[in-house]
Design a protein that fits this description.
CATH superfamily of one domain: Autophagy protein 6/Beclin 1
Protein name: UV radiation resistance associated
Strand content: 5-15%
InterPro entries: UV_resistance/autophagy_Atg14
Helix content: 40-55%
Order of helices and strands: EEEEEEEHHEEEHEEEHHH
GO molecular function: SNARE binding
Structural class: alpha+beta
Keywords: Coiled coil
Distance between the termini: 172 Å
GO cellular component, one term: endosome
Length: 410
């Protein structure tokens, strides 16, 4: 399809249609791709349509179109005649009322009927010339405007490049300023760190001197400690030796106690201490008060000597007075100071106190047995518990002199 402008005369091809189409439709005219010399203000132009195959084309339609003579067809395209060209403008579709084959001469000569109120005189030739010159001036102005616009765009592009360089320069200057400030800050911080380092070095030197002095003192103390260890080792050896001697001596003394206060058993299962019979606490009789007092005196002294040699304080202290020995109860808080001493010998009306004193003596024997891991099932067996303790707890072998054996038999 080609359009020829009438005023001024020019020729250009606007669009090419694809092949094998029955109802061809051309795209809208793009005035942006039209040549600058084309006057777009004209109202008349020539439309030419070619058709053919391969390279053999021929002119099919040549139509001089006047826009003022087109007929408005509506907002939509309805069924029309064949080989009819329809123009799509902004307000709708327009077409030719005649100018096609098949129309009768009467239709061609048909007058256009319009409202008389809309009829007005057309422009004269001079007015049209002035209008045409004005349109040409406008077109020339548009061309000049486009040219100046391109020059402005080029200058703006160059200015934009310059602005970018200035922007980068200002950014770099700002970075340099920030880096200089950071450098000054780091220098000040470095100065503080160096001063702190000098201070810490001085403190470290002082601590090193103190450490050297303390180390020397430690060496002296180590030497003194070694001397003390040697003295301690010597004293420990002396202590162990003395303790062994003390143990041996204690065993000797305990063995000698078996000679001083021998405990024997006759064939009647009666126990004797130094040849004096001492029955169990529940078997005391009034007729034996004298011998019981003597036997309890021996037993009380034997128990007190054992606790002395073993260095085990008795819970109930024994006051040795021979056959008039006593024992004290310092634990019971219900007793007064005068009531704490109990006899280990029978007295006329004080049997209850005597029995309690014997009970306390048996408790002392049970205490000694407990210290050496021996239990006491029956507290009343005074001499059997004491003899068993010395044999199994102290590993003492009893020796009974012959005169005591004879006396016991008698």
């Amino acid at each position: 399809m080609a359009i020829n402008s009438l005023i001024p005369t020019s020729h250009f091809t606007c669009v090419t249609l694809k092949r094998y189409t029955k109802n061809p439709t051309w795209r809208s005219l793009d005035f942006g791709i039209m040549p600058d010399c084309l006057d777009t203000s004209v109202s008349c132009f020539v439309v030419k349509i070619w058709g053919g195959k391969e390279d053999a084309y021929q002119l099919l339609i040549e139509w001089k179109v006047c826009l003022d003579g087109l007929k408005y067809l509506g907002q939509q395209i309805h069924a029309r005649n064949q080989n009819e060209i329809i123009f799509g403008l902004n307000d709708g579709y327009y077409g030719a009322p005649f100018e096609h084959k098949g129309y009768s001469s009467s239709q061609k000569n048909m007058l256009l009927q319009v409202d008389q109120n809309c009829v007005r005189n057309s422009y004269d030739v001079f007015s049209l010339l002035r209008l045409h010159r004005a349109q040409c001036a406008i077109k020339q102005t548009q061309v000049t405007v486009q040219k100046i616009g391109k020059e402005i765009e080029e200058k703006l592009r160059l200015t934009s490049t310059s602005n970018e360089l200035k922007k980068e320069s200002e950014c770099l200057q700002l970075k340099i300023l920030v880096l200089r400030n950071e450098l000054e800050r780091q220098k000040k911080a470095l100065g503080r760190e160096v001063a702190l380092l000098h201070k810490q070095q001085i403190a470290l030197q002082d601590k090193g001197s103190t450490f050297s002095a303390e180390h020397l003192k430690l060496q002296l103390q180590k030497e003194s400690l070694n001397e003390l260890r040697k003295d301690c080792t010597a004293k420990r050896e002396l202590f162990l030796k003395t303790n062994a001697q003390l143990t041996i001596r204690c065993r000797q003394l305990l063995s000698e106690l078996s000679y001083i206060y021998p405990i024997d058993l006759n064939e009647h299962k009666d126990y004797f201490v130094c040849g004096v019979k001492l029955p169990n606490s529940e078997d005391f009789q009034a007729k034996d008060d004298g011998s019981i007092a003597v036997a309890l005196g021996y037993t009380a002294h034997l128990v007190s000597m054992i606790s002395f040699f073993l260095q085990v304080p008795l819970r109930y202290p024994v006051i040795h007075k021979g056959s008039r020995s006593t024992i004290k109860d310092n634990i019971n808080d219900k007793l007064t100071e005068k009531e704490r001493e109990f006899p280990l010998y029978p007295k006329g009306g004080e049997k209850l106190q005597f029995d309690y004193g014997v009970y306390l003596l048996n408790k002392n024997i049970a205490q000694l047995r407990y210290q050496h891991g021996l239990g006491t099932p029956d507290l009343r067996q005074t001499l059997p518990n004491l003899k068993n303790f010395m044999e199994h707890g102290l590993l003492v072998r009893w020796y009974v002199p012959s005169f005591l054996m004879l006396r016991t038999v008698m």
